[in-house]
Every structure is written in C-alpha cells, then in structure tokens.
C-alpha cells in the first residue's frame, strides 16, 4: 500500500492517497495493537504527508509532532527516521506560517542531518532546503539564496534538472530570485520549471498549475499586468477544478488573481474575488494565517480603491492588531501588512 499511496500522491490524487493510508494505518493498528511501533509510525507518517498535500496543515502538524516524539523515545534523536519526522514537523510549521518555530527546529535538524547522514544524502539536502525556505520567510534573503543555490546545484548535478527533487527546488529558487529583484533569472527558471512540470505531469496536475501561477506572479512584478491577470484567471479555475476551491493552493491562486486584476485596473473584480477567498482562507487555515492576512491586506487596498474607505480602514486596523500575533515579529515575506505593497502567494511543491 505504501508504494501505491506514494504513486497516488505523485499523480496529484491526494484524497485517494489519504483514504488508502488511513485504511492501511487503521488495519496496522488493529493487527499490531499499537500506534507507536515502527510499522504503524511509518504508515502514520505517510498519512500525515497526504494530509499536508490536502491542505490540512493543522491536523498534519499534530500527527508529525506525535510521530517525532514517538521516534525520539524508540530510536533516539540521531536516527534517520527521527530526523525525517523532525523535518516534516518543521516543514509543516512553516506552512502554517509559524516561521520562528520552524526556523529554530529546522536549523537544529539540518545540523543533525549533516552529522548523522552523508552531507550529500537526499534527506540532508531536503533539510537544508527547508532551512533556506525558513530563512526566506523570516526575511534573510542572502542566506536563503546562498544555501538554496548550493543545494540546487548538488541535486541537479546528481539527479538531473528534470528530477522531482530538482524541480521542487527550482520552483522555490525562482520565487526567491523574484524576492531579490533578479527578475530575468527568476522568470527563466520559473518558466522552465512550469513547462517541464506540464510535459512530465500534464497540464492538469496541481504542480503544473502552481508552477504556472508562479509565472503569473513574476509577470505582475515586471508590470505585465494583462498577462498576469490572464494567467491568474486560468490557474485559479484550474486549481479549483482539481483540488476544490477550499484548498489552500486554490485560495492562493485566488489571491494572486485578485492582485493581478487590481493592478490591471479592475479593483471591483479584485475585491469580489478577494472577499470570497478571504472567507475560504479563514475556514481552511484560520484567521491568523499569513495567507488570510495577505487576502485581508489586498482586500483593504481594493476597498479603498473602490471608495469604501471606512470598511478599508477597519480591515487595515484589524490587520495591524493581528500582525504581531500572526508573525511573531517583522518578516520580509509579510511586508505588505505595513507597506501597502500588493500581497502575493507563491506555490511551493511538496516532497512526496
């Protein structure tokens, strides 16, 4: 079942994979009488990863943390499986927007990976990549770029540029380059990654759709607002068709379409999309999540642009109160909360 579940996740069939792993986990617990033996822990880990891909970050975090604690007791802190569970826990914390916690855990985890496993081991490189992602979210872009570039070079040299691990890192690296204003390089890498995903996985795979949405963000950054809007319309509809409109990736695509519409001169349309997406985000990831905050910030800008000043000011005040609790400090990824810059969401492929 593990092999079939992994294949289903790779194909973008996340609900099917989750059902399969859930059934296998229940069966294993019934037969073995314990949810914390190595076999059931492995199945529970796969179940949690399927939950991440379904956008159920809170539930997945609880599962990964529980598995990590069980493996610490059974195997000790320097076992490869324990390290993998800690990596999964830090990764999911980052997806939840809990950047400080994620960085602290991942910094320790990456160091232990380098000590316990080979420095070139795939799991070690993934741990280093997540550390770079955590650093990016905290606003430490030079460190993130240096580390991510080094990891990408190692992975592409070993695996080739079309390997899933290489594509995952390339998608993230392109958006980091965008953050740093290196737009030509960012576009080249994002466009190449999106095209490769489309060829390898098909245009209806969530990764192909998400990678194309990243291209739309860069188009908006360089001022090609009409092309960004067209891309946003396409990716929002496609992601919702594949995963449902309530999935965080679909909501993120909606945020980007709203921003593109606003900058293309349609604040009314942007406000309509943003308001609907904001309600979905509050239900899917909570009121304090960075995705929810970004949608609120964008909607406040659009309300102001359409003359609804009082509502816009109230929303801005609410965001100002929530920002310290949401982020725990001042983060580069969330400068829009105080600067008035249009928010964006970028798609991050998940390891399978």
Automatic annotation (TrEMBL):
SUPFAM superfamilies listed in its UniProt record:
TPR-like
Pfam families referenced in this protein's UniProt entry, alphabetically: TPR_12
Q: Read off the InterPro entries from this record.
A: NLR-like (IPR053137), TPR-like_helical_dom_sf (IPR011990)
* Name the record gives this protein: Tetratricopeptide repeat protein
């Amino acid at each position: 079942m593990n092999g079939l579940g992994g294949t289903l996740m790779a194909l973008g069939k996340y609900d099917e994979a989750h059902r399969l792993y859930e059934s296998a986990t229940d069966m294993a617990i019934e037969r073995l009488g314990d949810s914390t033996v190595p076999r059931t822990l492995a199945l529970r880990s796969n179940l949690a990863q399927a939950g991440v891909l379904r956008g159920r970050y809170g539930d997945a975090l609880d599962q990964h943390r529980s598995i990590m604690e069980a493996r610490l007791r059974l195997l000790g802190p320097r076992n490869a499986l324990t390290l993998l569970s800690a990596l999964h826990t830090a990764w999911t914390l980052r997806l939840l927007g809990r950047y400080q916690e994620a960085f602290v855990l991942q910094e320790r985890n990456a160091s232990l990976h380098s000590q316990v496993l080979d420095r070139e081991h795939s799991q070690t490189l993934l741990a280093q990549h997540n550390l770079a992602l955590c650093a990016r979210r905290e606003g430490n872009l030079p460190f993130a770029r240096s580390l991510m570039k080094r990891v990408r070079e190692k992975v592409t040299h070993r695996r080739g540029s079309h390997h899933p691990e290489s594509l995952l890192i390339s998608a993230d690296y392109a958006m980091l380059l965008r953050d740093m204003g290196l737009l030509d390089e960012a576009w080249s890498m994002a466009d190449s990654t999106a095209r490769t995903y489309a060829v390898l996985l098909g245009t209806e795979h969530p990764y192909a759709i998400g990678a194309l949405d990243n291209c739309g963000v860069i188009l908006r950054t360089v001022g090609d607002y009409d092309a960004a809007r067209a891309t946003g319309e396409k990716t929002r509809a496609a992601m919702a068709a594949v995963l449902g409109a309530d999935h965080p990736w679909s909501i993120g695509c909606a945020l980007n379409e709203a921003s593109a519409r606003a900058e293309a001169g349609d604040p009314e349309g942007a406000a309509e999309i943003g308001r609907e997406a904001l309600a979905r985000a509050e239900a899917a990831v909570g009121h304090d999540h960075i995705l929810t905050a970004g949608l609120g910030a964008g909607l406040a800008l659009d309300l102001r642009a359409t003359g609804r000043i009082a509502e816009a000011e109230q929303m801005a005040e609410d965001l100002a109160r929530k920002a310290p609790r949401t982020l725990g400090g001042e983060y580069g990824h969330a400068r829009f909360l105080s600067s008035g810059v249009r928010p964006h969401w970028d798609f991050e492929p998940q390891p399978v």
